Amino acid sequence: MLKRYLLRRLLVAVPSLLIATAIVFTLPRLIPGDAVQLMLAETSYAKDLDELRAKLGLDRPFHVQYVEWLGRAARGDLGESLWTRRPVLLELAQRLPVTGELALYATIIAMLIALPVGVLAAARQDSVADYIARSLAILGLSVPAFWLATLLIVLPAIWWGWRPLTGYVEFRQDPLAHVTQILLPALILGIASAAALMRLTRGMLLEVLRQDYVRTAWAKGLTERAVVIKHGLRNAVIPVITLLGTQLPQILGGTVIIETIFGLPGISRFLFDAINQRDYPVIQGVNLLVVSTIVVINLAVDALYAVLDPRIRY
Amino acid sequence: MSATTSATLELNGAAPAPAGARRRATAIRWALAVVWFARAKPLGAIGGIIVVAMLIMAAFAEQIAPYPYDETIRGARMRPPSSAHWLGTDNLSRDMWSRIVYGARVSVTVGFAAIALAILAATAIGVSCAYFGGLWDLAAQRVVDAWLSFPVLVIILSVMAVLGPGRLNLIVSIAIIGAAVNSRVIRGATLTVMQSQFVEAARAMGCGHVRIIARHLLPNVTATIIILATIGLGAVILAESALSFLGFGVPPPYPSWGAMLSGSGRTYMLRAPWMAVWPGVAISLAVFGFNMLGDALRDVLDPRLRGGR
């Protein structure tokens, strides 16, 4: 039953991915004015207009361009960057680990903070611990990441003359320096997600803890741990998982600012530069990569949904 | 009879008119409710004060700010905070306090408009998907999937690039993303309510779709919607500031808090730290206020969470 559901869900993900690729493909083409002319004037990507149009594949009908682009992308050919003239796939492969690591650490940090604090705040509603946890969460949600990052760079520099590492250290060169370098940006990225997840965990758990079956569990004489974790949390965690799924694009969006501020050579900074340089093949390549990753993660979230709550079947 | 006449009559010692009395009773009820709220939820009341202060700043910026937002003051370049310039001056000799006051306008208008648009769309999509299910749910959720799997920055950039920069486009592009994110959570919450027996009972009694949705589903997902709108309002103000920080917000010289933190704010942050501090404090305070107020309102509005263990 579960297997069939998962298989069906997998089939359903395909149209999502197709819609997303269509958006990826269309968006850069919606930029108004003759962008190609501007590119030619600004960046000298080609000798003349016709050559640049041909390079971008803009000289053929729209749907033909889309199908061809999709076919090439499926074979791993994302074209080459107009700016560096290197294959987009190669450029992405180089930068993906940085962003992946950053996002992974941020997510782990967020969950590590959110779940225990959320459970504690709900189990001890209106206690001092609850107030402190909620105030900190609200503070975490309120402080903009780019400001926090700026302060963490400026204040130590003013007070102690300390500056964070500039220039990226690879894992192979110095593992410790590499991890330390990513931890601070990951913490800043994770804080906002942690606050959102913690608030939802608390809210949902409070709702569940007022249900009849929880009262029954108390009446049976179960320990608080069993009632809160087994009966409460398992039912409260479903919306939290949905939110975790939706947090990922946010975390990835946040990497644009964080990677720029901390000088990390990830795909988000690559995308930001590409947008400023009108480097269409790179914009499409990065988007395609991010879009596919997130569709796969959404799939995993839905699967987890079904495993955790047998009531939910489509 | 108008309120003014009834007030005059009362001053003259005559009996108050019924309409005026009703109005006064309503006013007193509201005042009592506010006092009760402030005593029951002090943190929420603080949030409320911050929100009201911000709204007043935005509405009466001309009266509150000592200088116009773009006036350069001779001989006052990068001055630290003083009695003449509470929050100091920036690298173009402009009064920081005045710029912060005017900056509230951008945050308030963009914030409220975007969240209203986003939550309206999200509720329509989320509830209808969960309730009707089937092909509609399948199709709509695939589009939402595609929508959600998009990097925020690119949607916004593309919308802005297509429509041209400006406040309205900022609102629309932020709302598009907010709608997709929130519709997922609202759909999840509605699905859970749909399993309840009272929904089944309503169906068995022959209630129509509109009645089931309006009377049975919506009231039970209101708590979720309020949490989302609250986190949303704060988050939207944050998003606006991040976009302005990246240079895609309201064009200069009009001040927005995010833009004040980028560019010159970052260039001169070691020599004039106040340039990088105050706009951030303003953003954080505003978001903090909305979150605190929303949190307290939610505790008060959701009867299931009132009292209890």
Q: How would you describe this structure to a colleague?
A:
By secondary structure, chain A is mostly helical. Chain A is built from twelve helices and no strands. In chain A, helix 5 runs antiparallel to helix 6 (128-142) and helix 8 packs across helix 10. Chain B is mostly helical. Chain B is 74% helix and 0% strand. Chain B has helices at 3-11, 18-40, 42-59, 61-64, 96-132, 134-148, 152-163, 167-194, 197-204, 209-246, 257-261, 264-267, 273-301. The longest helix of chain B has 38 residues, at 209-246. The termini of chain B are far apart. Mean pLDDT of chain B is 80; it is low at 1-11 and 303-309. Classes of the chains: A mainly alpha (314), B mainly alpha (309). At the A-B interface, helix 1, helix 6, helix 7, helix 8 and helix 10 of A face helix 6, helix 7, helix 8, helix 10 and helix 13 of B.
How are the secondary structure elements laid out?
The complex is a heterodimer of chains A (314) and B (309).
Chain A: H1 2-26, H2 35-43, H3 49-56, H4 62-74, H5 88-123, H6 128-142, H7 145-160, H8 175-209, H9 212-219, H10 224-262, H11 267-277, H12 280-308
Chain B: H1 3-11, H2 18-40, H3 42-59, H4 61-64, H5 96-132, H6 134-148, H7 152-163, H8 167-194, H9 197-204, H10 209-246, H11 257-261, H12 264-267, H13 273-301
Q: Quick one: which chains have the greatest interface? A: A-B, 69 and 63 residues
Mean pLDDT of chain B: 80
* SSE succession of chain B: HHHHHHHHHHHHH
Span from first to last CA of chain A?
Answer: 11 Å
User: Mean pLDDT of chain A, as a whole number?
Assistant: 79
Global morphology of chain B? globular
Helix content of chain A: over 70%
Tally of alpha and pi helices of chain A: 12
Low-confidence stretches of chain A: none
Low-confidence stretches of chain B: 1-11, 303-309
Roughly what percent helix of chain B? over 70%
Shape of chain A: flat
Sheet with most strands of chain A: none
Number of helices of chain B: 13
- What is the rounded Rg of chain A? 24 Å
Strand content of chain B: under 5%
Number of strands of chain A: 0
| Class derived from helix and strand content of chain A | mainly alpha
Assembly state of the chains shown: heterodimer
Determine the strand fraction of chain A and express it as a percent band. Answer: under 5%
Number of DSSP E strands of chain B? 0
